[in-house]
Design a protein that fits this description.
The longest helix is centred in the middle third of the chain and has 34 residues, at 117-150. Helix 3 runs parallel beside helix 7 (117-150). This protein is globular. The protein is 78% helix and 0% strand. The protein has one domain (21-267). With 272 residues, it is mostly helical. The two termini are 44 Å apart.
């Protein structure tokens, strides 16, 4: 008589069992439930496509004024809005976790998933996947948008041109890595403003500050900042003394992985 009862109890408990698939589905729903999600994703697409188109117009104007314009500069136009796209997708990634702390929803989340690590892993998977698709799609849209500007001067180019398709795919990868870094900052700081300001400092303020300081050591340090490494990741043409696409990707991977590991450890140790 005890065995059938045990089976019935197991069957009753199974539907409520916490699995990674269910955690992932819950985080997917929460991501699309945020009001900021649609606005920021549209802003990423519009900003990257708009800045890429403006860059195309600027190159044509520069060429008309007699300034040299290389083929690599033209082929790099699909990723022309990468810098500001990183800031926007990073802001969304910070909000993805910091908003739960602000609303108090994090208490319910961690009570439901006491192991905690699956929550951060699911959030990382969701934001990385969305960022990759949006980043690659934005680069493709930019590619299509710049062709009418380039065609009158016979500067238009095919997706099969050397390095173009790879650069577009790596643009999505770059945004995914930035999103993971930003998610980790949000988990570490538990504050939307703090996470976004820190991200902006890493991506924009610090590289700008170091660029005005002379010295070989400073220049070498600047190469390993996330924004500069990201530019090398998507680059088509690499200078002799610069990071290669692979090296830029590895540096970006470290910038994403180290904060994520730190966030995972602190998430398990700190009270929510």
């Amino acid at each position: 008589m005890t065995t059938p009862t045990s089976h019935r109890e197991s069957a009753a408990i199974a539907p409520g069992r916490v699995t990674f698939g269910r955690v992932l589905r819950a985080e997917w729903i929460k991501f699309w439930s945020m009001r900021s999600t649609a606005y920021l994703l549209l802003a990423v697409v519009a900003t990257m496509a708009g800045l890429g188109t403006l860059s195309a117009w600027g190159l044509i104007a520069a060429m008309g004024d007699g300034h040299p314009v290389t083929e690599a500069m033209i082929h790099a136009l699909p990723s022309g809005g990468l810098t500001f796209g990183q800031l926007l997708i990073g802001a969304l990634a910070v909000l993805f976790i910091s908003a739960e702390y602000a609303s108090g929803m994090i208490h319910a989340t961690m009570t439901t998933v006491p192991a905690r690590t699956p929550v951060l892993a699911a959030k990382a998977l969701v934001i990385a996947a969305v960022s990759y698709v949006v980043g690659t799609g934005s680069a493709l849209l930019t590619y299509a948008a710049v062709q009418p500007f380039l065609r009158p001067d016979e500067l238009d180019f095919a997706l099969t041109a050397a390095g173009v398709a790879g650069s577009i795919a790596r643009t999505g990868l770059c945004l995914a890595l930035v999103a993971l870094m930003a998610l980790a900052l949000g988990a570490l700081l538990r504050n939307s403003a703090g996470g976004i300001v820190t991200l902006s400092a890493l991506l924009l303020v610090l590289p700008t500050a170091l660029s005005v300081i002379s010295g070989d050591l400073v220049a070498e340090i600047a190469e390993y900042l996330p924004s500069n490494a990201g530019n090398q990741l998507v680059a088509i043409e690499i200078a002799d003394d610069a990071l290669t696409q692979l090296q830029g990707g590895l540096v970006m991977g470290v910038w994403a992985l180290v904060p994520l590991l730190a966030a995972t450890v602190l998430l398990k140790r700190r009270d929510v």
